[in-house]
Design brief:
Elements: H1 32-38, H2 46-54, H3 58-75, H4 90-101, H5 105-112, H6 145-153, H7 158-165, E1 167-169, E2 175-177, E3 185-186, E4 192-193, E5 199-203, H8 204-207, E6 208-209, H9 211-216, E7 224-229, E8 236-240, E9 245-250, H10 253-272, H11 280-284, H12 290-298, H13 301-311, H14 317-322
Parallel strand pairs: 7-9
Antiparallel strand pairs: 1-2, 3-6, 4-5, 5-7, 8-9
Helix pairs in contact: 2-3, 4-5, 6-7, 10-13
């Protein structure tokens, strides 16, 4: 039986309504931001696309603050970019991408303004600006992105791209990579005991020691963790985004690791502004029967991804590379529900 999460009013990110609109209940392809980008005219220049996205406040909602802040800085570059979306050379495009990734947008502008020889902007194509939405991780494999995109354009399969680059498109069509769980441990002895004998409070990374996540998302060190491991506990967890607090409850240490990786995945999705998880309650409040409400809850993109993280916990590098995350999700992509969908 699937582990049930414990929920509070802040389980979902701010801005996501508690009661989904009827459109959410339809099983549609999770393609919000990217589909909007794909409607651009084939002749529309890169500068036009950037300018158009820059004035769209919804970019915060669909792709997160990282993309928005990058576009704010990149907006000044639109005067330097040729309308056809070309750069001096593939090398200059690569250098510009590295500078932009490092936050050196002035140097990126210099590289992009050097010439006008046709070489597609592999690091930021106008038809898929939303790919930046998955790059908040410090360890995102930027060097593999041009290869992945060229393989995709050449018609290579998602499996071939994943095995060659370690990148794939998530349910919302943005590029993602996988962080190995090597070294992930739950430390029940960390922190201060409060209330019951089993409940402790500590900084997140003292309870959940995960080298990969810590390196990729150091800002989560500011989060608080509540942990209770006791034979009387029922497996569950919650993520309170308003209070920056993650809670895990489990009868055993091993189950605490499983619940913990599920909740950590919710945190990553929150940072990246990927479609969130939720609660059966949000559906039952609409008058939907409990069994159907749980079915809808289990189909939420964020819940599918979090359960998949549990499934892949402790997988080695070889099996991870052979089986991409999308291939091990327990709900087909076309049936997943995106709460960010319009």
């Amino acid at each position: 039986m699937a582990e049930r999460e414990r929920y509070d009013d802040a389980h979902r990110p701010a801005g996501v309504v508690n009661s989904p609109e009827p459109a959410v209940l339809r099983s549609r392809r999770c393609f919000a931001a990217s589909s909007r980008a794909s409607t651009a005219s084939a002749t529309e220049g890169f500068s036009d696309v950037v300018a158009r996205y820059f004035v769209d406040e919804n970019v915060r909602y669909y792709a997160g603050p990282h993309l928005y802040e990058a576009l704010v800085k990149l907006h000044a570059l639109t005067q330097l970019l040729p309308g056809s979306g070309t750069v001096q050379s593939t090398q200059d495009a690569s250098l510009a991408g590295e500078e932009a990734k490092a936050g050196n947008y002035g140097k990126a502008a210099a590289h992009l303004g050097l010439g006008t020889v046709n070489a597609a902007l592999d690091w930021l194509p106008p038809a898929k600006l939303a790919l930046i939405g998955g790059t908040m991780a410090r360890t995102f494999p930027w060097s593999q992105l041009p290869t992945a995109m060229k393989m995709e354009a050449a018609g290579k399969s998602a499996d071939e791209i994943w095995r060659a680059t370690g990148l794939e498109r998530a349910a919302d069509e943005r590029w993602t990579f996988e962080i190995p769980d090597t070294g992930y441990q739950v430390n029940p002895n960390a922190g201060k005991r409060i209330g019951s004998e089993s409940l402790t409070v500590a900084p997140l990374y003292e309870h959940h020691v995960h080298p990969g996540v810590q390196e990729a998302y150091p800002s989560l060190s500011k989060w608080q963790s509540q942990l209770s491991i006791s034979p009387l506990e029922r497996p569950g967890g919650s993520t309170n985004f308003n209070r920056s607090r993650l809670a895990v409850y489990a009868p055993t240490l091993e189950q605490a690791r499983s619940v913990g990786i599920h909740e950590l995945k919710h945190l990553i999705d929150w940072i990246e502004k990927h479609p969130p998880g939720g609660s059966p309650d949000q559906f039952m409040k609409l008058g939907i029967p409990e069994q159907e409400a749980y079915d809808l809850y289990n189909r939420l993109v964020g819940e599918v991804a979090a359960r998949n993280a549990q499934k892949r916990l402790d997988w080695g590098d070889i099996i991870r590379r052979l089986r991409r995350p999308a291939a091990t999700e327990d709900v087909p992509r076309h049936r997943q529900i995106n709460l960010y969908d319009e």
